[in-house]
Protein backbone atom coordinates (compact mmCIF):
# COMPACT_ATOMS: atom_id res chain seq x y z
CA UNK A 1 0.00 0.00 0.00
CA UNK A 2 1.48 3.33 -1.07
CA UNK A 3 1.37 6.57 0.87
CA UNK A 4 -1.45 8.82 -0.24
CA UNK A 5 0.22 11.87 1.25
CA UNK A 6 3.33 13.48 -0.24
CA UNK A 7 5.22 16.71 0.27
CA UNK A 8 7.43 18.38 -2.30
CA UNK A 9 8.67 21.52 -3.99
CA UNK A 10 6.85 22.89 -7.03
CA UNK A 11 8.05 23.64 -10.56
CA UNK A 12 5.51 25.89 -12.23
CA UNK A 13 4.34 25.61 -15.86
CA UNK A 14 1.54 27.19 -17.90
CA UNK A 15 -1.55 25.92 -19.72
CA UNK A 16 -1.85 23.07 -22.25
CA UNK A 17 1.44 21.30 -21.53
CA UNK A 18 1.24 18.47 -24.08
CA UNK A 19 2.85 15.04 -23.83
CA UNK A 20 5.25 15.89 -26.68
CA UNK A 21 6.67 18.60 -24.37
CA UNK A 22 6.83 16.19 -21.45
CA UNK A 23 8.83 13.71 -23.53
CA UNK A 24 9.52 14.31 -27.21
CA UNK A 25 8.65 11.67 -29.80
CA UNK A 26 12.22 11.67 -31.07
CA UNK A 27 13.39 10.14 -27.79
CA UNK A 28 10.48 8.00 -26.70
CA UNK A 29 10.43 5.86 -29.84
CA UNK A 30 14.00 4.69 -29.33
CA UNK A 31 13.99 3.04 -25.95
CA UNK A 32 12.14 1.54 -22.98
CA UNK A 33 14.83 2.92 -20.64
CA UNK A 34 12.95 5.53 -18.59
CA UNK A 35 16.18 6.80 -16.98
CA UNK A 36 17.37 7.74 -20.46
CA UNK A 37 14.02 9.45 -21.22
CA UNK A 38 14.14 11.23 -17.84
CA UNK A 39 17.13 13.28 -19.03
CA UNK A 40 14.93 14.86 -21.73
CA UNK A 41 11.75 15.63 -19.76
CA UNK A 42 10.27 19.05 -20.69
CA UNK A 43 13.32 19.69 -22.86
CA UNK A 44 11.51 21.64 -25.61
CA UNK A 45 10.17 24.08 -22.99
CA UNK A 46 13.21 24.22 -20.68
CA UNK A 47 16.36 22.38 -21.76
CA UNK A 48 17.69 22.54 -18.16
CA UNK A 49 14.56 21.15 -16.51
CA UNK A 50 15.75 17.60 -15.80
CA UNK A 51 18.77 18.94 -13.90
CA UNK A 52 16.61 21.23 -11.75
CA UNK A 53 14.43 18.42 -10.40
CA UNK A 54 15.12 16.98 -6.95
CA UNK A 55 13.52 13.62 -6.12
CA UNK A 56 10.06 14.19 -4.66
CA UNK A 57 9.34 17.45 -6.51
CA UNK A 58 5.97 18.35 -8.00
CA UNK A 59 4.89 20.12 -11.16
CA UNK A 60 2.09 22.67 -10.92
CA UNK A 61 0.53 23.80 -14.18
CA UNK A 62 -2.51 25.54 -15.64
CA UNK A 63 -5.34 23.89 -17.53
CA UNK A 64 -5.33 20.82 -19.81
CA UNK A 65 -2.05 19.31 -18.60
CA UNK A 66 -0.95 16.28 -20.63
CA UNK A 67 -2.94 16.98 -23.79
CA UNK A 68 -2.01 15.36 -27.09
CA UNK A 69 -0.40 11.98 -27.58
CA UNK A 70 -1.40 8.92 -25.51
CA UNK A 71 2.24 8.09 -24.70
CA UNK A 72 2.52 6.47 -21.27
CA UNK A 73 6.19 7.37 -21.45
CA UNK A 74 5.10 10.89 -20.38
CA UNK A 75 4.10 10.06 -16.78
CA UNK A 76 6.77 7.35 -16.59
CA UNK A 77 9.56 9.71 -17.63
CA UNK A 78 8.32 12.33 -15.14
CA UNK A 79 8.51 9.71 -12.37
CA UNK A 80 11.95 8.56 -13.51
CA UNK A 81 13.09 12.18 -13.43
CA UNK A 82 12.04 12.46 -9.76
CA UNK A 83 8.65 14.14 -10.12
CA UNK A 84 6.11 12.54 -7.76
CA UNK A 85 2.98 14.41 -8.72
CA UNK A 86 1.37 16.96 -11.00
CA UNK A 87 -1.07 19.61 -9.80
CA UNK A 88 -3.11 21.34 -12.49
CA UNK A 89 -6.37 23.21 -12.98
CA UNK A 90 -7.42 20.41 -15.33
CA UNK A 91 -5.94 17.41 -17.13
CA UNK A 92 -6.33 15.80 -20.53
CA UNK A 93 -8.04 12.47 -20.01
CA UNK A 94 -5.54 9.96 -21.44
CA UNK A 95 -2.65 11.48 -19.47
CA UNK A 96 -4.77 11.51 -16.32
CA UNK A 97 -5.47 7.79 -16.63
CA UNK A 98 -1.88 6.96 -17.59
CA UNK A 99 -0.53 8.92 -14.63
CA UNK A 100 -2.70 7.01 -12.14
CA UNK A 101 -1.77 3.75 -13.88
CA UNK A 102 1.92 4.54 -13.33
CA UNK A 103 1.47 5.70 -9.74
CA UNK A 104 2.04 9.38 -10.48
CA UNK A 105 -0.16 11.64 -8.32
CA UNK A 106 -2.42 13.86 -10.41
CA UNK A 107 -4.34 16.50 -8.53
CA UNK A 108 -6.90 18.97 -9.77
CA UNK A 109 -6.77 22.22 -7.82
CA UNK A 110 -6.54 25.99 -8.20
CA UNK A 111 -2.88 26.28 -9.15
CA UNK A 112 -3.08 30.09 -9.38
CA UNK A 113 -2.46 29.86 -5.62
CA UNK A 114 0.82 28.02 -6.10
CA UNK A 115 4.05 29.65 -7.25
CA UNK A 116 7.33 28.28 -8.54
CA UNK A 117 9.38 26.97 -5.61
CA UNK A 118 6.44 26.68 -3.16
CA UNK A 119 6.37 23.65 -0.87
CA UNK A 120 3.10 21.71 -0.99
CA UNK A 121 1.60 18.66 0.69
CA UNK A 122 -0.83 16.59 -1.34
CA UNK A 123 -3.17 14.39 0.68
CA UNK A 124 -5.39 12.22 -1.49
CA UNK A 125 -7.13 10.58 1.49
CA UNK A 126 -8.36 13.94 2.72
CA UNK A 127 -8.70 15.33 -0.79
CA UNK A 128 -6.67 18.45 -0.19
CA UNK A 129 -3.51 20.27 -1.13
CA UNK A 130 -1.77 22.43 1.46
CA UNK A 131 0.53 25.14 0.18
CA UNK A 132 2.97 25.15 3.11
CA UNK A 133 4.83 28.21 1.80
CA UNK A 134 1.68 30.32 1.64
CA UNK A 135 -0.34 28.62 4.38
CA UNK A 136 -3.31 27.98 2.08
CA UNK A 137 -5.43 24.83 1.81
CA UNK A 138 -6.88 23.96 -1.62
CA UNK A 139 -9.69 21.49 -2.19
CA UNK A 140 -9.40 18.58 -4.62
CA UNK A 141 -12.38 16.91 -6.35
CA UNK A 142 -12.64 13.20 -5.43
CA UNK A 143 -11.25 10.53 -7.76
CA UNK A 144 -13.35 7.56 -8.93
CA UNK A 145 -12.86 4.61 -6.54
CA UNK A 146 -11.11 2.51 -9.19
CA UNK A 147 -8.44 5.21 -9.57
CA UNK A 148 -7.90 5.48 -5.82
CA UNK A 149 -7.51 1.70 -5.66
CA UNK A 150 -4.98 1.70 -8.52
CA UNK A 151 -3.01 4.54 -6.95
CA UNK A 152 -2.97 2.79 -3.57
CA UNK A 153 -1.25 -0.18 -5.18
CA UNK A 154 1.29 2.11 -6.83
CA UNK A 155 -0.11 1.66 -10.33
CA UNK A 156 -2.00 -0.62 -12.66
CA UNK A 157 0.70 -3.32 -12.91
CA UNK A 158 0.64 -3.95 -9.13
CA UNK A 159 -3.12 -3.54 -8.97
CA UNK A 160 -3.60 -6.17 -11.63
CA UNK A 161 -1.11 -8.56 -10.10
CA UNK A 162 -3.15 -8.34 -6.91
CA UNK A 163 -6.73 -8.34 -8.22
CA UNK A 164 -6.51 -9.82 -11.72
CA UNK A 165 -9.48 -7.78 -12.93
CA UNK A 166 -11.21 -4.45 -12.46
CA UNK A 167 -14.32 -6.13 -11.05
CA UNK A 168 -12.65 -7.74 -8.04
CA UNK A 169 -11.34 -4.63 -6.31
CA UNK B 1 -35.05 10.48 -21.97
CA UNK B 2 -33.10 9.91 -25.18
CA UNK B 3 -29.54 8.66 -25.32
CA UNK B 4 -26.49 9.68 -27.33
CA UNK B 5 -24.45 7.32 -29.52
CA UNK B 6 -21.79 6.96 -26.83
CA UNK B 7 -24.36 6.16 -24.14
CA UNK B 8 -26.08 3.58 -26.37
CA UNK B 9 -22.81 1.83 -27.26
CA UNK B 10 -21.77 1.60 -23.59
CA UNK B 11 -25.28 0.47 -22.66
CA UNK B 12 -25.08 -2.34 -25.21
CA UNK B 13 -21.66 -3.43 -23.91
CA UNK B 14 -22.58 -3.13 -20.24
CA UNK B 15 -25.94 -4.88 -20.66
CA UNK B 16 -27.63 -2.30 -18.43
CA UNK B 17 -28.80 1.30 -18.63
CA UNK B 18 -25.97 3.81 -18.20
CA UNK B 19 -25.75 7.54 -17.64
CA UNK B 20 -22.91 9.98 -18.24
CA UNK B 21 -20.45 9.77 -15.36
CA UNK B 22 -21.11 6.05 -14.67
CA UNK B 23 -18.05 3.83 -14.41
CA UNK B 24 -18.42 0.60 -16.40
CA UNK B 25 -16.12 -2.37 -16.94
CA UNK B 26 -16.92 -3.65 -20.42
CA UNK B 27 -15.49 -5.89 -23.15
CA UNK B 28 -13.88 -4.19 -26.14
CA UNK B 29 -14.21 -5.32 -29.76
CA UNK B 30 -10.68 -4.40 -30.80
CA UNK B 31 -7.40 -3.38 -29.19
CA UNK B 32 -4.69 -1.73 -31.26
CA UNK B 33 -1.10 -0.76 -30.56
CA UNK B 34 1.56 0.95 -32.65
CA UNK B 35 5.34 0.84 -32.49
CA UNK B 36 5.65 3.82 -30.15
CA UNK B 37 3.38 2.33 -27.50
CA UNK B 38 3.27 -1.47 -27.93
CA UNK B 39 6.80 -2.29 -26.68
CA UNK B 40 5.90 -0.68 -23.33
CA UNK B 41 2.60 -2.63 -23.32
CA UNK B 42 4.54 -5.86 -23.82
CA UNK B 43 6.83 -4.92 -20.93
CA UNK B 44 3.80 -4.27 -18.68
CA UNK B 45 2.19 -7.54 -19.86
CA UNK B 46 5.31 -9.39 -18.75
CA UNK B 47 5.50 -7.50 -15.45
CA UNK B 48 1.92 -8.60 -14.76
CA UNK B 49 2.93 -12.20 -15.51
CA UNK B 50 0.64 -12.34 -18.52
CA UNK B 51 0.45 -15.87 -19.87
CA UNK B 52 -2.13 -15.58 -22.61
CA UNK B 53 -4.04 -12.99 -24.59
CA UNK B 54 -7.80 -12.84 -24.44
CA UNK B 55 -8.68 -12.77 -28.16
CA UNK B 56 -5.64 -12.65 -30.45
CA UNK B 57 -7.93 -12.21 -33.47
CA UNK B 58 -9.11 -8.88 -32.03
CA UNK B 59 -5.68 -7.46 -31.26
CA UNK B 60 -3.73 -5.59 -33.92
CA UNK B 61 -0.15 -4.29 -33.88
CA UNK B 62 0.94 -1.74 -36.47
CA UNK B 63 4.52 -0.71 -37.26
CA UNK B 64 3.91 2.73 -38.71
CA UNK B 65 5.37 5.53 -36.57
CA UNK B 66 9.03 4.82 -37.06
CA UNK B 67 9.04 2.65 -40.14
CA UNK B 68 11.22 1.51 -41.78
CA UNK B 69 13.39 1.62 -38.69
CA UNK B 70 15.95 4.44 -38.67
CA UNK B 71 17.98 3.02 -35.73
CA UNK B 72 19.13 -0.32 -34.37
CA UNK B 73 17.36 0.32 -31.04
CA UNK B 74 14.10 0.86 -32.91
CA UNK B 75 14.65 -2.33 -34.91
CA UNK B 76 14.95 -4.22 -31.61
CA UNK B 77 11.64 -2.78 -30.38
CA UNK B 78 9.97 -3.71 -33.68
CA UNK B 79 11.31 -7.26 -33.27
CA UNK B 80 9.95 -7.36 -29.73
CA UNK B 81 6.49 -6.63 -31.19
CA UNK B 82 6.92 -9.24 -33.93
CA UNK B 83 8.02 -12.03 -31.60
CA UNK B 84 5.25 -11.28 -29.07
CA UNK B 85 2.71 -11.27 -31.90
CA UNK B 86 4.02 -14.54 -33.31
CA UNK B 87 3.88 -16.20 -29.89
CA UNK B 88 0.22 -15.27 -29.34
CA UNK B 89 -1.09 -15.24 -32.93
CA UNK B 90 -1.64 -11.48 -33.10
CA UNK B 91 -1.86 -9.79 -36.50
CA UNK B 92 0.92 -7.34 -37.34
CA UNK B 93 0.62 -4.72 -40.05
CA UNK B 94 4.20 -4.39 -41.17
CA UNK B 95 6.38 -1.51 -42.33
CA UNK B 96 4.80 0.18 -45.33
CA UNK B 97 1.22 -1.06 -44.88
CA UNK B 98 0.09 2.35 -43.66
CA UNK B 99 -1.03 4.35 -40.63
CA UNK B 100 -2.70 2.28 -37.89
CA UNK B 101 -5.99 4.20 -37.87
CA UNK B 102 -6.41 4.08 -41.62
CA UNK B 103 -5.81 0.31 -41.59
CA UNK B 104 -8.26 -0.35 -38.74
CA UNK B 105 -10.98 1.26 -40.85
CA UNK B 106 -10.08 0.63 -44.48
CA UNK B 107 -9.12 -3.04 -44.02
CA UNK B 108 -12.63 -3.72 -42.74
CA UNK B 109 -11.69 -4.51 -39.12
CA UNK B 110 -13.80 -1.98 -37.20
CA UNK B 111 -17.55 -1.85 -37.89
CA UNK B 112 -20.26 0.56 -36.71
CA UNK B 113 -21.23 0.07 -33.08
CA UNK B 114 -17.85 -1.40 -32.08
CA UNK B 115 -16.06 -0.32 -28.92
CA UNK B 116 -12.38 0.05 -29.75
CA UNK B 117 -9.33 1.02 -27.73
CA UNK B 118 -5.93 1.83 -29.14
CA UNK B 119 -2.62 2.87 -27.63
CA UNK B 120 -2.58 6.00 -29.75
CA UNK B 121 -4.51 9.18 -29.08
CA UNK B 122 -5.94 9.37 -32.62
CA UNK B 123 -7.80 6.09 -32.12
CA UNK B 124 -10.84 8.39 -31.92
CA UNK B 125 -10.80 8.37 -35.77
CA UNK B 126 -13.06 5.28 -36.14
CA UNK B 127 -16.03 7.28 -34.99
CA UNK B 128 -16.20 8.25 -38.67
CA UNK B 129 -18.03 4.93 -39.20
CA UNK B 130 -20.01 5.08 -35.97
CA UNK B 131 -17.73 3.14 -33.64
CA UNK B 132 -16.83 4.38 -30.15
CA UNK B 133 -13.05 4.38 -30.23
CA UNK B 134 -10.62 6.03 -27.89
CA UNK B 135 -6.95 6.29 -27.00
CA UNK B 136 -5.46 4.49 -24.01
CA UNK B 137 -2.01 3.99 -22.48
CA UNK B 138 0.39 1.09 -22.86
CA UNK B 139 -0.34 -0.62 -19.52
CA UNK B 140 -4.06 -0.40 -20.22
CA UNK B 141 -3.39 -2.06 -23.58
CA UNK B 142 -1.58 -4.83 -21.70
CA UNK B 143 -4.59 -5.30 -19.41
CA UNK B 144 -6.96 -5.38 -22.37
CA UNK B 145 -4.77 -7.96 -24.10
CA UNK B 146 -4.95 -10.12 -20.98
CA UNK B 147 -8.64 -9.75 -20.15
CA UNK B 148 -10.46 -8.25 -23.14
CA UNK B 149 -11.96 -5.60 -20.86
CA UNK B 150 -11.32 -2.09 -19.61
CA UNK B 151 -13.02 0.39 -17.28
CA UNK B 152 -14.55 3.52 -18.78
CA UNK B 153 -16.35 6.56 -17.53
CA UNK B 154 -19.42 7.01 -19.73
CA UNK B 155 -18.90 10.45 -21.27
CA UNK B 156 -21.41 13.19 -21.80
CA UNK B 157 -21.70 14.26 -25.42
CA UNK B 158 -21.27 17.45 -27.38
CA UNK B 159 -23.39 17.86 -30.51
CA UNK B 160 -21.79 19.81 -33.36
CA UNK B 161 -24.22 20.61 -36.15
CA UNK B 162 -22.56 21.66 -39.42
CA UNK B 163 -25.03 23.47 -41.67
CA UNK B 164 -24.79 25.21 -45.04
CA UNK B 165 -22.47 24.10 -47.79
CA UNK B 166 -18.68 23.95 -47.94
CA UNK B 167 -17.39 26.50 -50.49
CA UNK B 168 -14.95 25.41 -53.19
CA UNK B 169 -11.45 24.94 -51.77
CA UNK B 170 -12.73 24.51 -48.22
CA UNK B 171 -12.51 21.00 -46.78
CA UNK B 172 -13.24 18.88 -43.71
CA UNK B 173 -9.80 19.91 -42.38
CA UNK B 174 -10.76 23.58 -42.49
CA UNK B 175 -13.97 22.76 -40.62
CA UNK B 176 -12.22 20.87 -37.81
CA UNK B 177 -9.56 23.59 -37.49
CA UNK B 178 -12.38 26.13 -37.16
CA UNK B 179 -13.96 23.92 -34.49
CA UNK B 180 -10.61 23.77 -32.65
CA UNK B 181 -10.51 27.57 -32.69
CA UNK B 182 -14.06 27.79 -31.31
CA UNK B 183 -13.68 25.14 -28.61
CA UNK B 184 -10.01 25.49 -27.67
CA UNK B 185 -7.60 22.66 -26.89
CA UNK B 186 -9.66 21.51 -23.89
CA UNK B 187 -13.12 22.54 -25.07
CA UNK B 188 -14.48 18.99 -25.11
CA UNK B 189 -12.38 17.30 -22.43
CA UNK B 190 -13.83 13.93 -21.42
CA UNK B 191 -16.77 14.38 -23.80
CA UNK B 192 -17.76 12.47 -26.91
CA UNK B 193 -18.42 14.67 -29.92
CA UNK B 194 -21.23 13.81 -32.35
CA UNK B 195 -20.97 15.50 -35.74
CA UNK B 196 -24.35 16.16 -37.35
CA UNK B 197 -25.87 18.24 -40.14
CA UNK B 198 -25.98 18.48 -43.94
CA UNK B 199 -22.28 19.24 -44.35
CA UNK B 200 -21.34 16.00 -42.56
CA UNK B 201 -23.92 14.03 -44.52
CA UNK B 202 -22.37 15.19 -47.80
CA UNK B 203 -18.80 14.33 -46.77
CA UNK B 204 -17.34 10.99 -47.85
CA UNK B 205 -16.47 8.48 -45.13
CA UNK B 206 -12.78 9.36 -45.64
CA UNK B 207 -13.45 13.06 -45.16
CA UNK B 208 -15.51 12.37 -42.05
CA UNK B 209 -12.42 10.63 -40.65
CA UNK B 210 -10.58 13.97 -40.84
CA UNK B 211 -13.19 15.43 -38.48
CA UNK B 212 -13.26 12.54 -36.02
CA UNK B 213 -9.45 12.16 -36.08
CA UNK B 214 -8.97 15.61 -34.58
CA UNK B 215 -11.63 15.24 -31.86
CA UNK B 216 -8.78 14.57 -29.41
CA UNK B 217 -7.23 17.94 -30.29
CA UNK B 218 -10.10 19.57 -28.40
CA UNK B 219 -9.73 17.06 -25.58
CA UNK B 220 -12.58 14.75 -26.61
CA UNK B 221 -12.64 11.07 -25.72
CA UNK B 222 -14.29 10.18 -29.02
CA UNK B 223 -15.61 11.85 -32.18
CA UNK B 224 -18.51 10.19 -33.95
CA UNK B 225 -20.65 10.53 -37.06
CA UNK B 226 -24.02 8.73 -37.04
CA UNK B 227 -23.78 6.01 -39.70
CA UNK B 228 -25.90 6.49 -42.85
CA UNK B 229 -26.32 4.62 -46.15
CA UNK B 230 -22.89 5.86 -47.25
CA UNK B 231 -21.28 4.40 -44.12
CA UNK B 232 -23.04 1.06 -44.47
CA UNK B 233 -22.02 0.75 -48.13
CA UNK B 234 -18.40 1.67 -47.31
CA UNK B 235 -18.17 -0.88 -44.49
CA UNK B 236 -19.90 -3.68 -46.44
CA UNK B 237 -17.41 -3.23 -49.26
CA UNK B 238 -14.71 -4.12 -46.75
CA UNK B 239 -16.08 -6.83 -44.47
CA UNK B 240 -18.70 -9.55 -44.17
CA UNK B 241 -18.73 -9.16 -40.40
CA UNK B 242 -22.31 -8.47 -39.30
CA UNK B 243 -22.95 -5.23 -37.45
CA UNK B 244 -25.72 -3.26 -35.87
CA UNK B 245 -25.72 0.48 -36.48
CA UNK B 246 -26.08 2.58 -33.32
CA UNK B 247 -27.78 5.93 -33.85
CA UNK B 248 -28.46 8.62 -31.28
CA UNK B 249 -32.06 8.95 -30.12
CA UNK B 250 -33.85 11.96 -31.67
CA UNK B 251 -34.31 13.34 -28.14
CA UNK B 252 -30.76 12.55 -26.97
CA UNK B 253 -29.53 14.89 -24.26
CA UNK B 254 -26.28 16.71 -25.02
CA UNK B 255 -24.09 18.65 -22.63
CA UNK B 256 -23.86 21.32 -25.28
CA UNK B 257 -24.86 21.91 -28.90
CA UNK B 258 -22.76 23.96 -31.28
CA UNK B 259 -24.19 25.17 -34.60
CA UNK B 260 -21.71 26.14 -37.29
CA UNK B 261 -22.74 27.52 -40.68
CA UNK B 262 -20.02 26.40 -43.08
CA UNK B 263 -21.21 28.42 -46.09
CA UNK B 264 -19.01 31.41 -45.37
CA UNK B 265 -15.96 29.40 -44.28
CA UNK B 266 -12.56 30.13 -45.86
CA UNK B 267 -9.45 27.90 -45.70
CA UNK B 268 -8.04 27.85 -42.16
CA UNK B 269 -4.48 27.66 -40.84
CA UNK B 270 -3.36 26.64 -37.32
CA UNK B 271 -0.39 28.81 -36.39
CA UNK B 272 2.52 27.64 -34.20
CA UNK B 273 2.61 26.11 -31.65
CA UNK B 274 -1.02 25.29 -30.86
CA UNK B 275 -3.70 23.41 -32.76
CA UNK B 276 -6.32 25.90 -31.57
CA UNK B 277 -4.30 28.94 -32.69
CA UNK B 278 -6.32 29.07 -35.90
CA UNK B 279 -6.70 32.00 -38.28
CA UNK B 280 -8.29 32.42 -41.72
CA UNK B 281 -5.96 31.91 -44.68
CA UNK B 282 -6.05 35.67 -45.40
CA UNK B 283 -3.98 36.25 -42.26
CA UNK B 284 -1.41 33.61 -43.24
CA UNK B 285 -0.76 34.55 -46.86
CA UNK B 286 2.89 35.23 -47.67
CA UNK B 287 4.46 33.44 -44.68
CA UNK B 288 7.56 31.81 -46.22
CA UNK B 289 7.85 28.01 -45.88
CA UNK B 290 10.74 25.58 -46.26
CA UNK B 291 8.92 22.25 -45.90
CA UNK B 292 5.48 21.02 -46.89
CA UNK B 293 4.11 17.71 -45.61
CA UNK B 294 1.10 15.80 -46.93
CA UNK B 295 0.03 12.69 -45.06
CA UNK B 296 -0.91 11.28 -41.59
CA UNK B 297 -4.05 9.76 -40.12
CA UNK B 298 -5.70 13.15 -40.63
CA UNK B 299 -5.06 13.78 -44.32
CA UNK B 300 -3.10 11.06 -46.15
CA UNK B 301 -6.03 9.34 -47.83
CA UNK B 302 -7.04 8.93 -51.47
CA UNK B 303 -9.06 12.15 -51.72
CA UNK B 304 -6.21 14.06 -50.08
CA UNK B 305 -3.61 12.78 -52.55
CA UNK B 306 -6.04 13.53 -55.39
CA UNK B 307 -6.38 17.22 -54.58
CA UNK B 308 -2.62 17.58 -54.08
CA UNK B 309 -1.97 15.98 -57.50
CA UNK B 310 -4.59 18.21 -59.08
CA UNK B 311 -2.90 21.36 -57.81
CA UNK B 312 0.64 20.19 -58.62
CA UNK B 313 -0.12 18.82 -62.11
CA UNK B 314 2.00 20.74 -64.59
CA UNK B 315 3.43 22.98 -61.85
CA UNK B 316 6.67 22.95 -59.87
CA UNK B 317 7.28 22.90 -56.15
CA UNK B 318 9.09 26.11 -55.17
CA UNK B 319 12.89 25.58 -55.17
CA UNK B 320 13.17 26.56 -51.46
CA UNK B 321 10.58 23.96 -50.40
CA UNK B 322 10.87 20.23 -49.74
CA UNK B 323 7.45 18.62 -50.33
CA UNK B 324 7.15 15.26 -48.54
CA UNK B 325 4.20 12.96 -49.15
CA UNK B 326 3.38 9.93 -46.98
CA UNK B 327 0.25 8.06 -48.14
CA UNK B 328 -1.89 6.86 -45.24
CA UNK B 329 -1.95 3.33 -46.66
CA UNK B 330 -0.48 1.07 -49.30
CA UNK B 331 -3.89 1.07 -51.00
CA UNK B 332 -3.99 4.88 -51.18
CA UNK B 333 -0.46 4.82 -52.61
CA UNK B 334 -1.45 2.27 -55.27
CA UNK B 335 -4.52 4.25 -56.28
CA UNK B 336 -2.35 7.36 -56.56
CA UNK B 337 0.05 5.38 -58.72
CA UNK B 338 -2.64 3.96 -61.00
CA UNK B 339 -4.33 7.32 -61.50
CA UNK B 340 -1.09 9.13 -62.32
CA UNK B 341 -1.07 11.26 -59.17
CA UNK B 342 2.31 9.93 -58.07
CA UNK B 343 3.75 11.09 -61.39
CA UNK B 344 2.08 14.50 -61.06
CA UNK B 345 3.51 14.97 -57.57
CA UNK B 346 6.99 13.57 -58.27
CA UNK B 347 7.41 15.51 -61.52
CA UNK B 348 6.45 18.66 -59.66
CA UNK B 349 9.30 18.00 -57.21
CA UNK B 350 7.53 16.16 -54.39
CA UNK B 351 9.15 13.23 -52.56
CA UNK B 352 7.23 10.11 -51.52
CA UNK B 353 8.12 8.37 -48.25
CA UNK B 354 6.60 4.97 -47.34
CA UNK B 355 2.95 4.68 -46.33
CA UNK B 356 2.93 5.35 -42.59
CA UNK B 357 3.25 8.31 -40.23
CA UNK B 358 6.13 9.94 -42.13
CA UNK B 359 7.77 12.92 -40.38
CA UNK B 360 4.68 13.73 -38.25
CA UNK B 361 6.17 12.56 -34.94
CA UNK B 362 9.70 13.90 -35.40
CA UNK B 363 11.55 10.62 -35.63
CA UNK B 364 12.61 10.46 -39.28
CA UNK B 365 11.86 11.21 -42.95
CA UNK B 366 11.85 14.99 -42.91
CA UNK B 367 12.98 16.64 -39.68
CA UNK B 368 12.88 20.39 -40.37
CA UNK B 369 15.94 22.62 -40.02
CA UNK B 370 16.47 25.52 -37.60
CA UNK B 371 14.18 28.44 -38.24
CA UNK B 372 12.14 26.59 -40.86
CA UNK B 373 8.43 27.10 -41.27
CA UNK B 374 6.64 23.86 -42.14
CA UNK B 375 3.12 23.65 -43.54
CA UNK B 376 1.57 20.27 -42.81
CA UNK B 377 -1.67 18.32 -43.16
CA UNK B 378 -1.05 16.66 -39.76
CA UNK B 379 -3.06 17.19 -36.59
CA UNK B 380 -0.39 18.59 -34.22
CA UNK B 381 1.93 21.57 -34.45
CA UNK B 382 3.46 21.57 -30.97
CA UNK B 383 6.93 23.02 -30.72
CA UNK B 384 9.42 20.23 -31.44
CA UNK B 385 6.71 17.87 -32.68
CA UNK B 386 8.55 17.20 -35.95
CA UNK B 387 11.88 16.74 -34.16
CA UNK B 388 13.30 20.28 -34.01
CA UNK B 389 12.21 22.84 -31.43
CA UNK B 390 13.68 25.60 -33.62
CA UNK B 391 11.10 24.94 -36.38
CA UNK B 392 7.51 26.24 -36.59
CA UNK B 393 4.62 24.14 -37.86
CA UNK B 394 1.46 25.44 -39.54
CA UNK B 395 -1.48 23.07 -40.08
CA UNK B 396 -3.83 23.24 -43.05
CA UNK B 397 -5.76 21.19 -45.61
CA UNK B 398 -3.93 19.18 -48.31
CA UNK B 399 -5.04 21.78 -50.89
CA UNK B 400 -3.56 24.65 -48.87
CA UNK B 401 -0.35 22.68 -48.32
CA UNK B 402 -0.02 21.93 -52.06
CA UNK B 403 -0.69 25.54 -53.08
CA UNK B 404 1.85 26.72 -50.51
CA UNK B 405 4.45 24.21 -51.75
CA UNK B 406 4.13 25.73 -55.23
CA UNK B 407 4.41 29.33 -54.07
CA UNK B 408 7.05 28.88 -51.36
CA UNK B 409 4.81 30.74 -48.95
CA UNK B 410 1.42 30.05 -47.41
CA UNK B 411 -1.04 30.39 -50.27
CA UNK B 412 -4.78 30.28 -50.88
CA UNK B 413 -5.73 27.03 -52.66
CA UNK B 414 -9.01 28.38 -54.01
CA UNK B 415 -7.37 30.00 -57.02
CA UNK B 416 -6.01 26.58 -58.09
CA UNK B 417 -9.35 24.82 -57.83
CA UNK B 418 -11.68 27.04 -59.87
Automatic annotation (TrEMBL), chain B:
Its EC number is 4.2.1.33. Pfam families: Aconitase. Its cofactor is [4Fe-4S] cluster. Keywords: 4Fe-4S, Amino-acid biosynthesis, Branched-chain amino acid biosynthesis, Iron, Iron-sulfur, Leucine biosynthesis, Lyase, Metal-binding. Residues 7-284, 286-408 form the Aconitase/3-isopropylmalate dehydratase large subunit alpha/beta/alpha domain. CDD domains: IPMI (cd01583). It catalyses: (2R,3S)-3-isopropylmalate = (2S)-2-isopropylmalate. The keyword Calcium does not apply. Binds 1 [4Fe-4S] cluster per subunit. The keyword Metal-binding applies. InterPro entries: Acnase/IPM_dHydase_lsu_aba_1/3 (IPR015931), Acoase/IPM_deHydtase_lsu_aba (IPR001030), Aconitase_4Fe-4S_BS (IPR018136), Aconitase_4Fe-4S_dom (IPR036008), HAcnase/IPMdehydase_lsu_prok (IPR011826), Homoacnase/IPMdehydase_lsu (IPR006251), IPM_dehydratase_rel_enz (IPR050067), IPMI_cat (IPR033941). GO terms for biological process: L-leucine biosynthetic process. It comes from the Bacteria. GO terms for molecular function: 3-isopropylmalate dehydratase activity; 4 iron, 4 sulfur cluster binding; metal ion binding. It is an enzyme of class 4 (lyase). Pathway: Amino-acid biosynthesis; L-leucine biosynthesis; L-leucine from 3-methyl-2-oxobutanoate: step 2/4. [4Fe-4S] cluster binds at residues 297, 357, 360. Heterodimer of LeuC and LeuD. Catalyzes the isomerization between 2-isopropylmalate and 3-isopropylmalate, via the formation of 2-isopropylmaleate. Belongs to the aconitase/IPM isomerase family. LeuC type 2 subfamily. This is 3-isopropylmalate dehydratase large subunit. It comes from Candidatus Caldatribacterium saccharofermentans.
